[in-house]
# Entry
Amino acid sequence: MTAGESDGDRPRPFPRHDLILIPLTILATLLLLAGVSELVARFLFRESATSTLSCLILTDPTTGVRARPGSHCRQKAFESPLVDYRFNMCGFRTSQGCGPKPPNHYRIVLIGSSLSFGMHVAQRDSFAARLGPLLSRRLGRQVEVYNEAMQWGLPASVALRTDAIAAAQPDMILWPVAGFDIVNADLILPYIPGVQQELHDKRGAAPIASAAPSERGLASLPGRIWRRIVRKLTDTRSIFMLRHYLYRSQSQILAHTLTQGSGIDYLRTPPSAALRRNLTVFAQALDRVAAQARALGVPLVITVLPSRTQSIMLADGAAPSGFDPNQLARLLRPIVEARHAHYVDISTQLARVPHFGQLYFSVDEHMPADGHQAIAEALANALVRDKQIAAVGRQAR
Amino acid sequence: MTGLDNASIQFIAFGLAVALIMELGRSPRWRHAVLLVASLLSIALLTPDLIALVPLAGFLLLGYLAVLAVRNGVPRAPAICVILIVGVYVWLKQYSFLPAGSFLKFPYSTLGLSYVFFRVLHLVIEAVQPGPARGIGAGRYLTYTLNFTTFVSGPIQRYEDFEQEEAKPAPLDMAIVGEQIERIIRGFFKVNVLALLFRMVHDDAFAALAQPLSHEEKIFAFIRIIAADPLFLYCNFSGYIDIVIALARLMRIRLPENFDRPFSAASFIDFWNRWHITLSSWLKTYVYNPLLIAMMRRNRSKALEPVLGVVCFFVTFFLIGIWHGRTSEFAFFGVLQGTGVALNKSWQLLLINRFGRKKYRQIATSPVYTAIARGLTFSWFALTMIWFWADWQQIALIRGAVGIEGWLVAFPVLAVAATLVLSAWETLRSRLFALAMRDVPLLTNRYARTAFTTAMLMIAFIFVAVLSQPAPGIVYRTF
# Structure
């Protein structure tokens, strides 16, 4: 029954003490709700005091983000388990040592960003670690994946590390690219408050992500205060918990993501000017990696790792007007093929994996172990189907 | 300015501002002028392109001329005007059975037209006999038909009630203001949180039908779809109605209620007495009753009387279906509504014939019968809703995904689940509402209600302002 349905129209006395008790009830309810939800959220979603940042060098614009050789760190993000990150003496998160490739091994050097790096999953659970054994079983030969991917290993910084690719003696270079990588293609160093303040202040030639530009003036004051309140609330664990459960829903993450700004440019049709600029940056980075591949005489294979939003659209077989989950692949393929590299499609297969859209962390949008398993299988299938390895095998040194 | 056609913060702020301005003067003329200006302003803000409003203006003019013609006793005016107004409405709404070439070639707004249609038709019919509608002036006609609180999605207020509200505004005190604010927050919560969550269940389940899942998983998804949709629509529509009724009440206008806990209904006929009440009452007044009287005049056989009632029920609720939309899906939705009430009426007659009225009443009020009837009512409505939200292509997708057996399984499973869940809910609700401490109700006293309302406001604020999670628009604004 609603209030209006029992709405008495006779004037009723309003007790004076309610002028105090009603606001107190409101305040108590707010405090109780906020307190209880924050306590529950902090119990359910914990993070470690340590993170990969203690293993990473984030201040060198000549290399981009790289890991300290032989370092070890641990991180538990809100949605992930506690994960060990161990880096070999070359600074890569891979089970192989830094030395020369074992004889008769077919080595795929994996480059790229955090998903390929295996962010938030144990190294053995990453698709990089699973791909080698899968291919070995399929092909009856020893295939190993040497993972040179790095957190924030975005195209502009990948282009700075082509020497490391050569040093690993690859038989194939595999570069899985995500939509995030393309819309941030020119980023070499991320801006992390407090970590590289000094560098940020001295900004050099290399692009560094920056904090949001500050606004001034009285006119923008209400807006600034409002945004500050919203930001403070957004940073609470309660809001994180709410987002975590809400975004388990595919329709909700889709509705939320599609209202975002340039971060989803890779899905918007027609492609924006910013996306075209970023594709140019990617093409320049690809030029350098492709030149290295040619110099080494090995194939370079590019694929698109679909974001969660992309995966949901692909699985639905439909996209809202103005969005296209296949656009990125369509735009990348000619860029890749113009450089005599190979493009392999794994999105079609991933779209057929039951509940693939659920194989991501709801808020973080990296993948847990199950998602990596699906990616590894799709990649193995695609490489075998497209005869990438067989073709390379004849050329293998 | 957007958002005035939705349960948005802008709409609520607009309504509160109008209520405040109205309070600046006490004269009926002031109140009338404020309401008229606010209504015209809201339409202008909703449709800034004046050309797009020309068809609506033309429809309003036609309606007013029709009222004048009927009032002045032009021969055959009532019948001709009713046919003309229905015809123009159908044409402006571009019903799919009309040739596409006959429609206006420029884009125009039909927002609110469906509800304006009911109000105009009501005035024309009522102008036949002496009464308030007969003497309506142009200003009052515009205020009544375009009242911004009821323009987009109703409720459909009768003119005599509207005039009475204008002449004798409802009292307003602190307690009533508090109750209306509570109702606005509840409505906002229903639309922006509950409706969003039910829609989420529906959308996720519908997406699952196209995915590579097992047959059982797809049937389960289908059950989730049909179960979630009535709950979504209820929260979406009744939440919006809560807001407009409360805003109007703050303007000292009492609008009729449109919902009365419809899922507690123990029969499909009762359901329609509790769901979109003003629409079904309108149709009962202007379709069911006249039709029944006309048919009974033609067939004076007592034995046929119940059958005629069943036929009239069918026709009335079929019209409810086709009013909702201009496509064949809505026509089929109407057939299913008509079938539901006709079967329900026939069943009642059968029981009465077999057991007599007294025994029937005993049966119909027994807890087990009520629980089963409630479950069946919900399930039938839920099933018919498929034709309300889906087009034939989507229905084919469902059929392809779950097969005929999916449909055959879904209905009984839903009926059993609805029977159990709704019974449990009714029991829990009555027990919770009965909780009291020293004769003070525990959950419905004003402090408890303040606490619930604060919690709802906090959650809604987080969804809307912090998460910026877009809630689905008010479904009925498109009708």
